[in-house]
Specification:
Chain lengths: 280, 280
């Protein structure tokens, strides 16, 4: 143990595994906390987050140097769940040359003329890269179902397609890790109200969000089904209690570090003898 | 029976089904003819081809007008199997605004940095279109195996990925039909020799084709495996005896017409009453 940085983490013995969705088990979001601190002191948690974030930056550099595998990060949440602030806090310090965030909105005409995985496939990270999806193909199995945008026959098959797709990605070198930012309906109300109260946040408020809010329970149910059916060892879902930002950031960063450490990316060995090269 | 055009076809009672690869059965290309005329007179066959080709043009127009589903046509063959001349004969008369041919060559650096289905997915036809692949993702399971461009662990999984992928496409509105242009090793020799003998065909000759030719049996074996494992009702393989061009063209066009007739594309009903509109 000659590395200095992991020590404070080891001391707090922080474990992300309780937040995973177990593959193959019936799953309900109702059983998961929206507010949690893992028994940690806030300041200690923030310190740990910073150390982990530095480690993430180093691991990303190794992934980039190795250029053999990719990491796909999927972020889903209800409105005001904190996706944007998570991206900023967790991926802000990562070298943007090797990490791309892609937000998916309502598909355009060209995208609708193809299968729903067409645009998603296009934006996948290539070898050496981290790709982060702010919303994703999961909306084609969740939102489409809740809002009846397609018949049940169509959306119910998509869970299978998505499992096949992520299996193929894993086989071909892309690891996937998925986060559902979990908040309560009451917390969403607070956050939406804040957007109304602060003129500098008005741009984030969308009247259509209230229609989605009215379908809260349907979304929770459909997300529960889909998360339960699409969490696998090679592409797990984590349900992140998202009402405490510092804990949310810590947990997500811990999962990313654990995932990348398991991938263990290594820069390629030099194909020259550096001691034999003289730079004049 | 008031339609005049199908009559001569009915008379010759031409059936493409014997050329299909039966799903789930062990399959070997050795059991299939490379030279065949289906017991047809050549002139009658050519006449039938022209009628079918006209029918194909009409069906494509309906597919385009309907704008709901797509047809993917995959063409594979050994070198000098006749892919280019097939494309010209069969798809030449189809409206190019609704039919796109995409040839896949050796993947470039950007393509190699993604999974092998990435570039294929990108070029899929959108709703209303026919997309024709001159070579395809099947080379990632065949050529890569024969030439050991990746470990067996990697290429052997790809048959499963491809089945999943084509299943998803079928669920989402794209029908796939696949043709293997089947020739003998002796016929290939003749065709390659012809490229050497005729200066105007030299551009089609590639010395590397001789390396591929040296692996003839390995290719036949691997194609046999892959065709047998990836032929399904929603995405069947047809093994086309390709040494007689007129018969090859007739057979492929017949399959395309049968496939599109089963899809039965219909232009949308007008959302206006044409008799109520006066153009002054």
């Amino acid at each position: 143990m000659t590395e200095a940085s992991p020590a404070p983490l080891a001391k707090i013995e922080f474990d992300a595994r309780p937040y995973i969705v177990n593959p193959g088990k019936r799953f309900s979001l109702h059983d998961r906390a929206t507010r949690d601190d893992g028994g940690l002191d806030k300041q200690l948690g923030k310190d740990a987050f910073e150390l982990l974030r530095d480690r993430l930056v180093d691991l990303q550099e190794n992934l980039y140097a190795e250029q053999k595998r990719a990491l796909l990060v999927v972020l889903q949440a209800m409105d005001a769940g904190g996706k944007d602030s998570t991206l900023k806090a967790v991926f802000g310090p990562v070298d943007p040359a090797g990490c791309r965030v892609k937000g998916f909105k309502k598909p355009n005409d060209e995208e609708l003329a193809h299968d729903y995985l067409w645009r998603v496939h296009h934006w996948l990270p290539k070898r050496g890269y981290i790709g982060v999806f702010n919303r994703s193909h999961y909306e084609d199995a969740v939102t489409v179902a809740v809002k009846s945008l397609a018949p049940k026959k169509v959306w119910s098959r998509r869970v299978g397609h998505i499992n096949d797709f992520e299996r193929m990605l894993a086989d071909e070198g892309t690891t996937t890790v998925k986060f559902f930012l979990h908040i309560s309906k009451g917390y969403q109300k607070e956050r939406l109200q804040r957007r109304l109260d602060r003129p500098d946040k008005h741009w984030k408020f969308n009247v259509a969000d209230l229609d989605e809010r009215a379908r809260w329970e349907q979304y929770q149910e459909r997300y529960s089904e889909v998360l339960g059916q699409t969490s696998h060892k090679h592409a797990p879902w984590y349900v992140v209690p998202a009402e405490r930002r510092w804990y949310r950031n810590l947990l997500i960063t811990k999962v990313l570090v654990d995932t990348l450490e398991a991938m263990d990316p290594r820069p390629p060995k030099a194909d020259f003898d550096p001691s034999a090269i003289v730079i004049e």
